[in-house]
Each structure stands twice: as structure tokens, then as C-alpha cells.
Amino acid sequence: MSQTTFDLAVLRSFVAGMDLGSFAKAADRVGRSTSAVSAQLRKLEEQAGAPLFRKSGRGLALTDAGEVMLGYARRLVELNDEAAVAIRGVDLEGWIRLGLQEDFGEVVLPDVLGRFARAHPKVRIEARVARNTELLERIDTGQLDLALVWGAAGVTDDRNAAMIAEPIAAPPMRWIASSTVPWQFGADEALPLIAFDRPCLFHSAAAAALDRAGIKWRVAFTSPSLSGLWAAAAAGLGVTVRTSYGLPSTVRALDAGEGELPALPSIPLALHRASGSASPPVERLAALVMASVRAAHVPEETALA
Fold this sequence. Notes:
Helix content is 40%, strand content 20%. The protein contains nine helices and twelve strands. It has helices at residues 8-20, 23-30, 34-48, 64-88, 105-119, 132-140, 201-213, 226-234, 280-295, and strands at residues 53-56, 59-62, 94-100, 123-129, 146-150, 164-169, 174-178, 191-196, 217-223, 240-242, 251-253, 269-273. Strands 4-3-5-12-6 form a five-stranded mixed β-sheet, sandwiched between helices. Helix 1 (8-20) packs across helix 2 (23-30) and helix 4 runs parallel beside helix 5 (105-119). The longest helix has 25 residues, at 64-88.
């Protein structure tokens, strides 16, 4: 029996469509027509020997086979691109200073930085995990080259020269509670909130949503670290607010309306670059970071047009 050899160009279109939430947008990214991408997807399903998509509302969602295929497609495309970059950029060298949120420590640090280090062994990376305020200050003062930051892009430095800030995603904020301790909240008691030490965009959004809904609340636990928030939420001390990125198994995102908690807004996520930090190593790492974070945020439905 002959072995199936998947076409990397087809896999790239598949991954792009899932990342962008639209195969029409994917067609623009890969330089093909929408009809050509549709033909690629039909070819992929034929090669896979199983349906990869199912109807979901006005768009498409992945079947179980599609989820498996997407995981392998990402790995194959990433390995191809890593090999191409490693061959062309074998002589890259220098230093890169990267800052990121704790939410992405388990995603970016071992995966992206490991792949980058293997492809560019002469480039040294200095990584710092910190909160938004510190990351923005260090970008502004030139102490970081790149920083993964919550909040709107368009920050300017003291010289009124715009920082390079590329939007990555705008995931919805979620109420987070213990995955093992049953969530209970009486209507006559103040909602116990678990929050970062202020200032905190997530705490501010939670407080505003609760105030608008007329729900009493109190701060039951504060911590300077995300691990502290997860521990308190896992113990059932209250609820916290975050996105679905990087959730440990000890906590879970509450379903919409669960516990009669109000809806929360989305929060922009952007990769900020210091003015003048546009070296080839920085640009390459920036591309890897953005691709990794976007891959971790797959839309539930993907439109064909």
C-alpha cells in the first residue's frame, strides 16, 4: 500500500485559513484565488480519507479528524519553515531581549524559543516575564526589543515616534473558576474576586462589568503573579478574569451566563517592538512569536468566503 504524501502548499493554506478564520483571507496570504484554496481543501480531505470540516452556523468547524489534521499540519509547515530559515540564516548572530506575559510562558518559552535557538545557535536571547506596565516601560526605555502586551496598540515613546505594535488577536475575557471545587455564589453575598495587584486591565474590566450589572463584589485575594491567581482560583476562593490562553488544568473558563455573571469584553493583544529594533534576528523571532500565539487562538468557525 502506497504512503500518502501531503502537499505542504495545501497544508499551509489549511493552517492559514484556520488561523485567520476565513479561507478567503487565507487565499490572499498564500497568493491564491479562493477557488484554488477550496480545491486544495477538497484535495486534503481526499488524501486524509475523512471529512475535515462540518457545517457550523454560517461557517465551518473542524471535525475530530480535522483537529488532528490541523495539529500535524502546523508541525509540518513549521518544520519546513524552520529548515528553510536555518539554512538561509545560519550566520545570524546577536542579542534579542524579549518580554512576555505569564499567560504565554508555557507556550512561547519552550516552543518558540527552542525552535529559534536550534535554527540560530549564534543568537542569544534574554527573556523576561513581567506584567504590562513593566513591559511597556522597558520597551519605551530600550531595555527590551520585543514585548507581548495586553491592551491597544499605538503607544508612543517620549520622542513621539510610534512604537511598532502589531495586533495579534483580540480574545474574549473569561470568568475563571476552579475545575474541581463546585462554583457557588449566593445572590445576597458579594462576589469574591481574585485579582492581580492594581493596576490591572482584567480587574478593571471585571469590576466595570459587575458594577453595570448591579452585582456586589469584593476582592478576596490579590497576588503579584499569575500562578498565585491560579492557585487561589483552584482552591475555590473566588473567580478571576483572564483569557483562555495558558489555563492550567486546575481551573476552567465558565460558560457564558454561568453563575449569572455578566459578559466581558475582548482584550487586544499586540507585539510591541522598540524603535530601531528591526534587526533580522528580531524580525525572525517576532514572526515566530506571532505565529505561535495566533495558532493557540483558533476561531470556532471558519468561513469559506
